[in-house]
User: Fold these one by one.
Assistant:
Number 1:
Amino acid sequence: MENTYDVIIAGCGAAGLYGAINLPRSCKVLLLCKQELTLCNSALAQGGIAAVYQPTNDSTDLHKQDTLIAGGFKNNPETVQILVDNAKYEIQSILDMGVDFDRTPDGELHRTLEGGHSRHRIFHHKDSTGAAILDTLIRKVKTLENVTILENTMMVDLKKTGTGFSVQMLRNGTLSTAHSHFMLLATGGIGRIYEFTTNSKIATGDGIAMAYNIGAEIRNLHLIQFHPTAFNNHHTRECLLVSEAVRGEGAYLLNCHKERFMHLYDERLELAPRDVVSHSIVTEARRTGSTDFYLDISRKDPEFIKRRFPMIYENVLAQGYDMTKEPIPIYPCQHYLMGGIHVNTQSETTVPNLFACGECSHTGVHGNNRLASNSLLEALVFSRQAALTISERMSTCPDTFEEAVFPAQENAKPLPTGFRTEIRHLMQESCFVIPDTAKLLDGFERIKEIRKTLTTESYEIDSNYVEAKSLATIGYLILKEVI
Ligand SMILES: Cc1cc2nc3c(=O)[nH]c(=O)nc-3n(C[C@H](O)[C@H](O)[C@H](O)COP(=O)(O)OP(=O)(O)OC[C@H]3O[C@@H](n4cnc5c(N)ncnc54)[C@H](O)[C@@H]3O)c2cc1C
């Protein structure tokens, strides 16, 4: 296999695929995907993608204002402006590629409302928008002759060289290397650092940990969004998200007495932004002494519910609840990372020619709290920013590739079990929705110890070891910021 490329992209979610599609066809690209192409957070996105596209009563100023309000005005106004201004271009671009957004009976694109948005501006494909976008991007990228896609191929290490980057990869148990002038990290989120998350199992923060290891600035990793309404069956680690749009369509939140309670915490009631609702639920749990909470949309027309939320309806029904007839149990869980590898408006990190986009990056658009449906948009807008910058710089690259050497595995032993479980438990106990100050310090010391063990002892390189190392680095960075 050839092993030199103009660009290596780690990650095949919305960000990585759209980045590849927007690079020039003269650019030789390697796309790495840790598992199969459809296993990622992008595939799980339900509610939709926010955009001011062919507006009626909407404007980019309003979209910007809503984004800033949700983010507590801690957003970067410059990147927010780029986000809202470019939205119409990206929507048109994915429509042209064939994304099948829902339409009204008269053929107009249907726009729905979600918490924190002052206008109906969420474009969606039923309640599985991410899968619809991802399928289209996968189909498109597979037609591109300049792009080599390697599924089930994990980036296990990354080094900076004099001419760019060297990547160590693991595929079918075999290690190999590839080299490039530019690197685009699109490795997604960190949800698997918590016991309960909506994230797919690939979300172990590998790209963030590797960028940190080569000196890139990481910012605001403690800004984690806990989604208020994950279906709560108390035993699966990957929790089904009950989309914000269910509240947007009128569902009520109920406490353990099956009473509405949001009026005690925020005048926007169920449509308050996510952080406010999650915080309210955890505070209400303390007030009532119970973590039993429910979401109730059963007063709406059953046919509307089944048509509007077919995926949620079927999944919840399979677990014994008919949402057209009764409230369903919910509780907050980890959902999204606002922080990440810090990038500028062109998606470039503090390491020259190292780019990052999507959930692993910190563009600053979300501030303290992401507005619903802004992340798919961020993934598209800022992966294209990276692609544009890389294409402008390509002609300045040398013809040669320096190749970094990765350490040989000497006396490597298998990773003992238990590290990942322990990290997840420490994070869930100490740093969930409202951090527990008493547990934070002990948790931090223990995660530091685990990280030291994993980085100084010699373990066999497999996905379990690489992910454990990533989780330890991410846990260390989060708790360091919180303490
Ligand atoms: C349940 C759920 C619902 C959501 N709903 C919405 C919504 O309605 N609207 C919205 O805007 N956002 C939503 N989000 C958030 C949004 O889906 C994500 O933020 C966004 O899709 C992230 O895209 P990404 O490309 O950055 O990461 P991902 O889509 O997660 O892709 C990451 C990619 O990186 C690869 N990867 C990771 N590590 C490695 C490695 N070491 N080597 C090689 N490859 C690697 C993975 O295999 C994967 O291909 C939702 C998220 C979840 C979990």
Number 2:
Amino acid sequence: MKTLDQLQQTARTITNLRPAYREILDFYKEVFRVQEESLKDIQLPPIMIEPGLLKIKQKNELPLIDPSEFLIDLKAAARTFADICGLAQALAPGLSANARFLEKALSRTAFDLEALFCALLNRHEKAVQDISRLLDVPAAELSLFGYLSMAPSIRACREQLEIYLAGMPELQKGYCPVCGNPPDLGFLDQDGGQHLHCSFCSHEWKSGRMGCVFCKNNSKDMQHYFFNEEEKEYRVRLCDHCHRFIKLVDLRQMDREFFPDLERIATLHLDMQAREKGYINEGAAGNEAYH
Ligand SMILES: [Zn+2]
Ligand SMILES: [Zn+2]
């Protein structure tokens, strides 16, 4: 079992290798600690899926739930929101002014956190924009703080829902079998097997290595990748059919512990390179607020 200490140690290792990530990783490793602590307080009823509905979903390779069905422990999420605002003020200069404002607004109940969570879970961009205008805080920052505070509840729900996936065949679709969101990261295990990591609920699932993970296109002249000589553990797969990209971490080339959340953040330069080449990854878009 990987511990928080190992995560902190791995963050330090990455920071030594790539000092440009020091600030952002110093912030995120504290965020992960706060989220881990919050997980212990979370109390949520299980999300039940009727057997008939489960059969239909399995037959049609549909995800178990829609993201709007995730349950959020509001009390725990509000505490995490305040904690993360505090961390941003101390460790993330680019976010600190708005973090201070949001923390104050929350303590005066001047804004409705539940409405923000609801808008994010339902992907109601207009509702997020409305809250953004009302508070004069960029929507990307609101989404970042909101999502980071909901993440422990989402994780608790996801771990409970994974029971429903036991014994099911591998889903050969380019989305998460739990919540239907796209992967933001992939990795190759010690045997070369490819796994994907959900951008929303962090579920990990096995996927075939052939072709694009999103659209399954497998034509040789459409599938490319790039990598940097000095970072052999990473490669970025590009698809000319759907114009998406996915970052892959090759665990056989890496001698540190693998924490998807850390590697996802410590590879933002690869997202930038892929975007400059004209490719997108909807699942990875949420990290942009930091910059
Ligand atoms: Zn998911
Ligand atoms: Zn594709």
